[in-house]
């Protein structure tokens, strides 16, 4: 049993971690470490040895006994057949020599047995560490009352001692403990070392004299160099007296060793007659190498260790002492216990879902949700979006819950308690029932009250979509917590990622894969009202047509085509060019603008050569192959259950003249009233005779001969008319899709939503950290809560 002494910053923690095989692989290191002649690569050093750090990291909701028993199970203190056989052999040898100790025999047999007897080790550690009185007390933290600081330190030590590692490295285990408890713990450690042939290196800052006497050897470390290593009795005092420093009679040896290597305290221990000169740490190390203890140590290191002397089970070559299934069951039972201890959080989240669902269906109540209109459809989309938004934000609490578990997880993973999957898989499995309950509550309360399609299949599909988005939110925020690792970073990162998901949803990831797309399509394909009519279409329910109102059902989505300032040119063949003219291209369409809308029949009128076919070709943009055209036409065949095209009430006409110029574009009106009024209002145009066929009249007007005869440029008159300006505004309006407006409104809504979220979420972690100091300082009477609150408001 060796004591590691040294001032702060001497390198004690680094040395212990290096010996335990826990140094960061990114750090540059040199030298060789071996266990019984075997290098670290030949076995699993983190399982063979055990490193106990100076930080007390525990689950605050577990009791002391539960924490120790969990460590015992994970570290494989169950059935140890090889150890039991060895104990039986030694017991028989001692029985023949009449030296058997009944108490030790019972202890070791219980230690190596399986089943209920394995808890004997937990109870024994509780008794030795004087934790029996608080065995059923939760460990707690700064905000939750539990065990004291000294008891937490003993739990940190105890959860590693139950593992039966053959090598123990302990770093500052006396922090927060009184001298009596430190002595009892070290006495217990000494018994374990001597009775079970264990190797132990313990780092203590200033051990009392009675504790110092319990150690067999001592290592004095300073500035990263070993000043002395050897027996801790008179040999260490002899070494320093050999140099010229003597320990006073009533001075503790440990305190003397800490001060004699210090520059400011070294001189007071000088006792030789010659003048004092400061002895540096490298000089101490050089003098120790020439001292007989240092020479003996060097001689021992030069002799190779006989590997045949080591027992086959001394070095562990497997990372985990129990099977994967057992590890999963142990971690699953602990996570279930933690969920029960944190039941208030889950009950509160479920209650929050119920309240928000009630608010949602009262805002989007079915009596206020018109069916079959664009306005009503937007309300349904708003209800779906708000529902999915609540499912996403319901997972935010997972961030703080995961952050509280990460320090313990990292410590236990590094100590090879369990792999990462054994920690994460139970959390995911136990969140599935929670997602089912919360998603089910939301869908049950909102689906029929909002007025979604009353189909059982669509009800369950919406429930499945909400369940998936809820599980995704849980997993996303657990990932954010693992990446951020600190509350401030994780909360800020979580809000930013949420904003990115909502802003880029459907662009970075295809929209067809999104939950919102699935919910919307599921509702759109449903039939909210059995007798509902579309705005312009109706599905025939039987072979008998009961309603012949305007409209039809199309097997494709109606589209609006708008074109503005279209010009079209073709090259003039060389043999047809007119002499004296420099034009190489013939313009067929000149600044043509217009729009084709669903439900409105438009006639394109003009004499031969006006550019009608050219305009149609330009709008169609034919780039399909013959096979693609045939397949498209086959798919577009009208299905038997679709209604015929009803009588079109809205009709428009566009008139082109030769040269591809528009002379009229607008509605005809009843009995072509608007068309005739437009042309008759032009000075010089004769009145249209009653009974004269209007189509022939329009063709005559578009004839170039009429232009020359009347000396009227109809294209110029149309370009300067109010009708042209109205058409231009209409084309501009149709060119701006409704989705652009929805994107703008969505962006504004997202700014309002996430601006509050980005301020509200990160500030909670800051307040959670500051209130610990607030409670302590307020209890000390430094200030009241009111000025503290005013200071926070002014700062923000």
From TrEMBL:
Q: Which InterPro entries match?
A: AAA+_ATPase, ABC2_TM, ABC_transporter-like_ATP-bd, ABCG_dom, P-loop_NTPase
Membrane-spanning regions, if any? Answer: 344-365, 377-396, 463-483, 489-509
| Domain AAA+ ATPase positions | 1-225
Q: Where in the cell?
A: Membrane
The top of its lineage is: Eukaryota, Viridiplantae, Streptophyta, Embryophyta, Tracheophyta
Name of the protein described by the UniProt record: Pleiotropic drug resistance protein 2
| SUPFAM superfamilies named among the record's database cross-references | P-loop containing nucleoside triphosphate hydrolases
Instruction: Name the Gene Ontology molecular function terms of this record.
Output: ABC-type transporter activity; ATP binding; ATP hydrolysis activity
Stored Pfam families: ABC2_membrane, ABC2_membrane_7, ABC_tran
Keywords (alphabetical) are:
ATP-binding, Membrane, Nucleotide-binding, Repeat, Transmembrane, Transmembrane helix, Transport
Similarity comment: family membership: Belongs to the ABC transporter superfamily. ABCG family. PDR (TC 3.A.1.205) subfamily.
Q: Name one GO cellular component term.
A: plasma membrane
Q: Which SMART domains match?
A: AAA
| Bilayer disposition of the protein | Multi-pass membrane protein
Q: What organism is this sequence from?
A: Senna tora
